[in-house]
């Protein structure tokens, strides 16, 4: 029996919330015996061993759980609506190894910009399965995508149509992004479907843009696209979006974007993939043409749970509060500062000990907002402990930055007791490589 099947039987020592934590940690997480008692293992390898080998901060992905989650989407949508396609919203984990995994498991891929396009091509993704997003694509990016033989471009605006009129030399599949006027219940920075959105065209401007594309001999206009936002926990909002997109007209393809939310904390409740797919497909049956092709673009909900961030505790201070400071921070986990996302921490090397201390888990960047967890419940932390933040697989690497000269973390995929490095840690040489030498004297 693997760790995933056995999860209900994982230990939940008194004075901890470990019993609940198993549903937030990667599917292939388990407790193993270590020198200090119970330890957290992912994909069959103790986290302590992974951080010894690869250093910290380290992003660890449960590859088996990740692949399983991808299949839930791909198979689940296909069973419900055979003429369908699931796109990996690659901004959630833009890593060559992930693009390759996505293709292997039957996903197409959405890229938003030249950089993501390059990563996808480097992973060997079939260009015909790539979809190109963006509200401000440049001529150079469009040319790069066309030269690569991109499958579909999701057109955002009239200027982009003008650009394509200039650039197209052969037939090109296109979708148009529309603004559905659905105010997603999520953090303001993650809502993209409201009438004031910068993405796409409002419904009343869509018809004219569509007519322009339909009239062009090289533009193969296939249908419409929307995306109402991210970390959405109410499936009704997706059903509403499907209903809204149906009012634009009758087309071959309807791409209803991504956005399914995930459970980050003990108290949060997130819809299952199945109930999300049910909501979309029910709304599609009620509103969309029977023979239409449906596309969805999950990102966060594909990769968030499979990934964790591991840190070393560098210092513990009992001043105004108890501060547990780790060797990472908002340079590798900025979502907390951007969207007030809360994550749950655990001391990976001391799994069985009671969580009797309330601590501020802080990072090492020079901001008081670099607070990884406010009032975390932990065993009294010690220097050298390994602190793991759960459910950090989505958008953490994407948003990693060099604040205070921080180096981008390494990423490992672990599976069946084997680890493989999919992105090495940035080095000081990498950091310096961008800069011209200072003038002598
Ligand atoms: C166009 C588009 N599709 C899909 C996604 C993926 O969203 P999520 O990661 O919430 O599933 C995004 C990200 O916000 C997006 O902008």
From TrEMBL:
Residues 69-304 form the Orn/DAP/Arg decarboxylase 2 N-terminal domain. It comes from the Bacteria. InterPro entries: Ala_racemase/Decarboxylase_C, DAP_deCOOHase_LysA, De-COase2_N, Orn/DAP/Arg_de-COase, PLP-binding_barrel. Its EC number is 4.1.1.20. Its cofactor is pyridoxal 5'-phosphate. HAMAP family: LysA. This is Diaminopimelate decarboxylase. It comes from Leucobacter iarius. The gene is lysA_3.
């Amino acid at each position: 029996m693997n760790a995933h099947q056995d999860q209900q039987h994982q230990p939940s020592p008194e004075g901890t919330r470990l019993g609940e934590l198993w549903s937030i940690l990667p599917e292939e997480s388990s407790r193993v015996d270590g020198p200090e008692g119970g330890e957290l293992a992912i994909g069959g390898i103790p986290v302590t061993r992974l951080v010894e080998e690869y250093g910290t901060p380290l992003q660890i992905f449960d590859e088996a759980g990740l692949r399983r989650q991808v299949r839930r989407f791909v198979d689940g949508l296909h069973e419900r609506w055979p003429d369908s396609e699931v796109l990996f919203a690659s901004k959630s984990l833009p890593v060559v190894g992930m693009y390759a995994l996505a293709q292997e498991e039957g996903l197409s891929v959405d890229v938003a910009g030249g950089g993501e396009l390059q990563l996808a091509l480097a992973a060997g993704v079939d260009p015909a399965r790539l979809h190109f997003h963006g509200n401000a694509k440049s001529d150079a990016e469009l040319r790069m995508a066309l030269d690569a033989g991109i499958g579909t471009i999701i057109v955002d605006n009239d200027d982009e149509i003008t650009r394509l009129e200039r650039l197209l030399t052969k037939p090109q599949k296109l979708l148009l992004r529309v603004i559905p006027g659905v105010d997603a219940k999520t953090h303001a920075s993650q809502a993209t479907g409201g009438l004031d959105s910068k993405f796409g065209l409002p419904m009343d401007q869509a018809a004219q843009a569509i007519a322009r594309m339909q009239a062009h001999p090289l533009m193969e206009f296939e249908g419409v696209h929307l995306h109402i936002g991210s970390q959405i926990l109410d499936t009704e909002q997706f059903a509403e979006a499907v209903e809204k997109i149906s009012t634009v007209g009758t087309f071959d393809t309807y791409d209803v974007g991504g956005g399914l939310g995930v459970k980050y904390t003990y108290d949060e409740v997130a819809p299952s993939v199945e109930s999300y797919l049910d909501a979309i497909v029910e709304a599609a049956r009620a509103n969309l043409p029977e023979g239409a092709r449906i596309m969805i673009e999950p990102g966060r909900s594909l990769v968030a749970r499979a990934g964790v961030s591991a840190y070393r505790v560098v210092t513990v201070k009992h001043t105004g509060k108890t501060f547990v400071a780790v060797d990472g921070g908002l340079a590798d986990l900025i979502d907390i500062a951007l969207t007030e996302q809360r994550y749950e921490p655990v001391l990976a090397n001391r799994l069985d000990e009671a969580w009797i201390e309330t601590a501020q888990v802080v990072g090492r960047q020079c901001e008081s907002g670099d607070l990884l967890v406010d009032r975390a419940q932990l065993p009294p932390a010690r220097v050298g402990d390994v602190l793991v933040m759960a459910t950090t697989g989505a958008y953490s690497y994407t948003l990693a930055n060099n604040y205070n000269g921080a180096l981008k973390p390494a990423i490992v995929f672990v599976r069946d007791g084997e680890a493989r490095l999919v992105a090495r840690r940035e080095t000081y040489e990498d950091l310096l490589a961008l800069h011209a030498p200072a003038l002598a004297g």
